[in-house]
Amino acid sequence: MRMVHEITLRGTTTSSSATGYPTQTPTDKQVYADKASVRRAEFYAADANGDTLDIAFIVHADEYDGQTEVVYDGVSYKVIRAYQRGLGRVELNCQRR
Q: What's the average model confidence in pLDDT over 40-62?
């Protein structure tokens, strides 16, 4: 796999405001990924829980820090499940928002 698709991993960081209240700031990280189809078992397991999976991305493990959203071709996806796939890779199963 060649990692030719550019995606944005979007997460949030929580910090304190000047008044002491927590504020969440979005953080974006541009990475390269492989685009993949959702596996049949993953698709049906998500369906049993009331979710739908639309697409999967495979990224380098050192680039993924638990982000909850992926943006690809201007479309936002929610990360439903992330798991280690082989040595140094993480598969992100995503649902279109």
A: 93
Check: CB of residue 7 under 8 Å from CB of residue 29: no
Residue owning tokens 């944005």: 8
- Cβ of 97: how many Cβ atoms within 10 Å? 11
pTM, two decimals, is 0.89
Count of Cβ atoms closer than 10 Å to residue 94 Cβ: 23
Intra-chain end-to-end CA distance of the chain, in Å:
26
Pick the CATH number of 5-96 from 3.40.1280.10, 2.40.10.270, 3.40.50.300, 3.30.1050.10: 2.40.10.270
